[in-house]
Specification:
By secondary structure, this protein is of the alpha/beta class. The chain has 2 domains: about 5-10 and about 385-495, Sandwich (Immunoglobulin-like); about 20-380, Glycosidases (TIM Barrel). Helix content is about 25%, strand content about 30%. It has helices at about 50-60, 105-115, 130-145, 150-155, 185-200, 225-230, 250-255, 260-280, 320-335, 370-375, and strands at about 5-10, 15, 25, 65-70, 90-95, 100, 120-125, 165-170, 205-210, 240-245, 285-295, 310, 340-345, 355-360, 360-365, 380-385, 385-390, 390-395, 400, 405-410, 415-420, 430-435, 440-450, 465-470, 475, 480-485, 490-495. Strands 3-4-7-8-9-10-11-13 form an 8-stranded parallel barrel, surrounded by 5 helices. A 7-stranded antiparallel beta sheet has the order 2-16-20-21-27-23-24, covered by helices on one side. The protein has a 5-stranded mixed beta sheet with strand order 17-1-22-26-25, with no helix packed on it. Helix 3 crosses helix 4. It starts with a strand and ends with a strand. The structure holds alpha-L-arabinofuranose. The site of alpha-L-arabinofuranose has 10 residues, from loops.
Length: about 500
């Protein structure tokens, strides 16, 4: 087979990569909070009750915007239940996941953790069963200087300094009939505008995210987004996109081509934002906030019912090699659309559809951890349009796609290149050309692969799918040349002049 040639030129710039596309999502569901980041009884607990082993692993992912507290959870959440002395906080029945919520972790615990981890807090307000006023009160609690009711409540709870949270989501998946308080688009738009006004009256520096379509296959896809954005106009800085994918048909080649439809979803939503801006003659346009994305299809159905237990084992997806390539594909797509995708949050971070799992005191790193880590550590710079010349294949659902899925970032004296070989059984030769630069050296090159598409890590065998140095990467005649194993993802940092 002929090799794939990637052509890079520093003039082919898309936009600066917004570091917030390497965001995460921590929802009060399953074992994400309790037994995930927070487990006071664990031998790994720090003085705040957080698991040091989990935080250590999360640190390697270098996450930015952290969305909290949901998710479907938020549409029934009353934030006042989660603040104040822990022994006085109510235990409640949580309807979204049919679980018991003890409220031992809440706003101030999350803010402290975010500060420790260097995360930018991204709060979602309850527009399901909550009111615009409740949302406004939360903004005051988080952001106002002392002297008024909710700011003083925060001080009374031991947090003198405002948390200064800038990024707020106006509800979650309100287009979904499963959502507590689901309403048609026109109703949601009114609710969101009312909340946005009250929240902005409280703090005019907020950045607000409107809840867009929760999936590409929703019957109201695009219609919902158009109605919501057309009504909200300037009130929304971003519209959210959600996407969960899976290999239900057990057709790996087709599954790996799903990146083409992620590109398409981004372009659809960008078109809505541009059209609304034009129709309403707005100065400012809304950008995209891909605030839930991941592989999720095995742990569905019965696996979503918490059976009225605290920290139930739900949505505990096991990730394999093919999922790893799809996760890299999501991130490639966000980089390719750096001009419009400004925030993205992998859903989620621990135990619930997550790169990290715990079991008692043990912790496991899943396959999807590695592409996130490899790309997040190379995120600084300007996304470049990559010229690709190489083989492609026809996928059943998404048309023709290049065999190699790729993206690139121009940093300070470096070029970062990401490439997945989607061939199921053949290694593939890759050549990287920097058209207007001299490639001085290969500073680093890592690869993730495994014995077969379904290979995955377990507590007994934790290193089946991991990142390793990619060997035999050479510079010949100014071109980087190497061979990508079948079903692999590689990341390169090239020193350039
Ligand atoms: O991330 C799991 C769930 O997926 C979220 O709570 C919801 O927003 C989405 O349907």
């Amino acid at each position: 087979m002929k090799p794939t040639n990637l052509y890079l030129h520093s003039a082919f710039q898309i936009a600066e990569v917004d570091s917030r596309i390497f965001g995460g999502f921590l929802e009060h569901m399953g074992r994400a909070v309790y037994e995930g980041v927070y487990e006071p009884g664990s031998k790994h607990a720090d003085e705040h009750g957080c698991r040091k082993d989990v935080l250590g692993a999360l640190r390697k992912l270098n996450m930015t915007a952290m969305r909290y507290p949901g998710g479907n959870f938020v549409s029934g959440y009353h934030w006042e239940d989660g603040v104040g002395p822990k022994e006085e906080r109510p235990t409640v029945r949580e309807l979204a996941w049919k679980s018991i919520e003890t409220n031992q972790f809440g706003t101030n615990e999350f803010m402290r953790l975010s500060q420790e981890m260097g995360w930018t807090p991204m709060m979602a307000v309850n527009l399901g069963t909550g009111t615009p006023e409740e949302a406004r009160n939360w903004v005051e609690y988080c952001n106002a200087t002392p002297g008024t009711k909710y700011a003083d409540l925060r001080v009374a709870h031991g947090c003198k300094k405002p948390h200064d949270v800038k990024l707020w989501c106006l509800g979650n998946e309100m287009d979904g009939p499963w959502q507590l308080g689901h309403v048609p688009a026109e109703h949601y738009a009114i609710r969101a505008q009312q909340a946005a006004k009250l929240m902005r009256d409280m703090d005019d520096s907020l950045e607000l995210v409107a809840a867009g379509s929760c999936a590409k296959d929703m019957p109201t896809y695009i219609d919902w987004d158009w109605k919501v954005m057309d009504y909200l106009g300037d009130w929304a800085d971003y519209i959210s996109l959600h996407r969960y994918v899976g290999n239900e048909a057990n057709n790996t080649a087709d599954y790996l081509a799903v990146t083409a439809s992620i590109d398409r979803q981004i372009e659809d939503m960008d078109a809505v934002c541009r059209a609304v801006q034009a129709r309403k003659r707005l100065k400012k346009r809304a950008y995209l906030c891909f605030d839930e994305w991941n592989v999720w299809y095995r742990a569905r159905g019965a696996d979503q019912n918490g059976k009225w237990k605290p920290a139930p084992h739900i949505l505990e997806e096991v990730y394999n090699l093919e999922d790893m390539i799809v996760v890299a594909g999501f991130l490639n797509s966000f980089i390719r659309h750096a001009d419009v995708v400004k925030i993205a949050n992998i859903a989620q971070i621990v135990n619930v559809i997550a790169p990290i799992m715990t079991e008692g005191d043990k912790m496991l790193i899943q396959s999807i951890f590695y592409p996130f880590m490899m790309m997040s550590s190379r995120r600084e710079g300007i996304a470049l349009r990559v010229g690709i010349d190489g083989p492609s294949y026809e996928s059943k659902s998404y048309g023709e796609v290049p065999l190699v899925d790729t993206s690139a970032i121009l940093g300070d004296g470096v070029m970062h290149v990401f490439a997945s070989n989607r061939s199921l059984d053949e290694k593939h030769r890759l050549r990287i050309h920097a058209l207007d630069k001299e490639i001085l050296s290969v500073e680093s090159a890592e690869v993730v692969t495994g014995p077969n598409a379904k290979a995955h890590n377990t507590f007994a065998k934790p290193n089946v799918v991991t990142a390793k140095p990619l060997k035999r990467v050479q510079i010949r005649d100014g071109v980087v040349q190497c061979s990508l194993p079948p079903m692999s993802f590689a990341a390169f940092t090239l020193r350039v002049k």
